[in-house]
Design goal:
Length: 353
């Protein structure tokens, strides 16, 4: 497997706990997941209130998590969103400088500058973002910088929600950004069903470098997607992608234990190539995460968990509760919490985080 894999915690809604983050990183590291990027939308000090310092308790937890990554040999990164900056003046520079100094102090290796999910139909969008990224590059000790464009997919949903993308926007970013910097890309859709070689090559031509994949599977952080548990093995991610991407980052599900199952199948997809079978890969990954008995039970429930939808379970809900209530495993507890509605995402959550 020649592609660099990692986790990008970039979802909306209920965040993982610090212990869940550390445990997931430790579980996936031996399987080839070599980087972790902390960028949950709920961390307002990286997004809407990015100019404010993290409270001391959060800062200490981030430092501890960075230390755990270092011990595991996992690259630690943080994503910051200079949210809808209109003028990158002295106050903005001072605020960003303080953030970068904090990141340096705790050992951030990957600095991600994220311009996603904010208004993009503004004059000079690309040039303003280039200015911010170039300034940050001069004031960070991170040895890798990754930029998320405002338009990080071909999907027209971004134009409907955030305004029409400026003509030549991606090409301008690609031409102006230092070629050593990486650029995030989610594919033909926000949540891409598959990645084709033709698409990846075309995007690479636009941005003048291989795209750094921000893969929105198994994430389930929208009002509709939170109705489902994404536990099925990956499809549409062929091993041939390895030569066409800079790296492959996975935006995980809201459920930290269950997300390990599709994460493991991605490793298998790259390693087995044309011999990959997503159904059998799902079962093998579930055994690695839950043990054989619970894995077989989960495998029997994949169709209901992933394809029916929480509000359409009807009498299936009672059957699921009977099968998973009282089972002493975090994956089982996540299934019950999902049934209880603890992972529901509303449009209000997405619009305010």
């Amino acid at each position: 497997m020649d592609v660099e894999l990692g986790i990008i915690e970039g979802f909306y809604g209920r965040p993982w706990s610090w212990d869940e983050r550390a445990a997931t990183i430790a579980f996936l590291a031996p399987h080839g997941y070599g980087f972790y990027l902390y960028a949950p939308k709920v961390d307002t000090y990286l997004r809407r209130r990015w100019q404010e310092d993290h409270p001391r308790e959060m800062a200490d937890e981030l430092a501890r998590l960075a230390g755990r990554c270092a011990k595991l040999g996992v690259r630690f990164g943080i994503g910051i969103s200079p949210f809808e900056v209109r003028d990158f003046g002295t106050a903005e520079r001072d605020a960003l400088g303080r953030k970068l100094a904090f990141f340096d102090a705790i050992g951030v290796q990957d600095l991600a500058i994220l311009f996603d999910d904010m208004r993009g139909d503004v004059p000079g969008l690309a040039d303003r973002q280039i200015q911010i990224v170039d300034w940050a590059a001069q004031h960070t000790s991170a040895n890798r910088i990754i930029v998320c464009p405002s338009y990080y997919t071909d999907d027209p949903v971004l134009d409907r929600v955030f305004g029409q993308r400026p003509p030549g926007y991606l090409e301008r970013l690609g031409a102006a950004l230092d070629p050593r910097m990486e650029i995030f890309w989610t594919g033909e859709e926000v949540c891409s069903r598959e990645y084709s070689p033709g698409h990846l090559r075309r995007v690479a031509d636009q941005i003048r470098r291989k795209p750094f994949l921000w893969d929105n599977y198994p994430v389930n952080d929208g009002q509709r997607m939170s109705q489902f548990l994404h536990v099925r093995g990956v499809t549409g991610r062929p091993a041939a992608m390895a030569d066409l991407v800079a790296a492959h980052g996975v935006n995980p599900a809201l459920q930290p234990t269950l997300t390990r199952i599709p994460a493991l199948t991605l490793v298998e997809s790259y390693r087995r190539g044309e011999a990959y079978e997503y159904g059998q890969a799902t079962l093998r990954a579930a055994v690695a995460v839950m043990g054989e008995e619970l894995a077989e039970r989960l495998y029997e429930d994949v169709l209901v968990l992933q394809d029916i939808g929480l509000d359409r379970l009807d009498d299936r809900e009672a059957a699921l509760r009977e099968r998973w209530t009282g089972v002493d495993h975090p994956a089982a507890r996540e299934i019950i919490a999902w049934l209880d509605g603890e992972y529901r995402i509303t449009d209000e959550i997405v619009q305010t985080q």
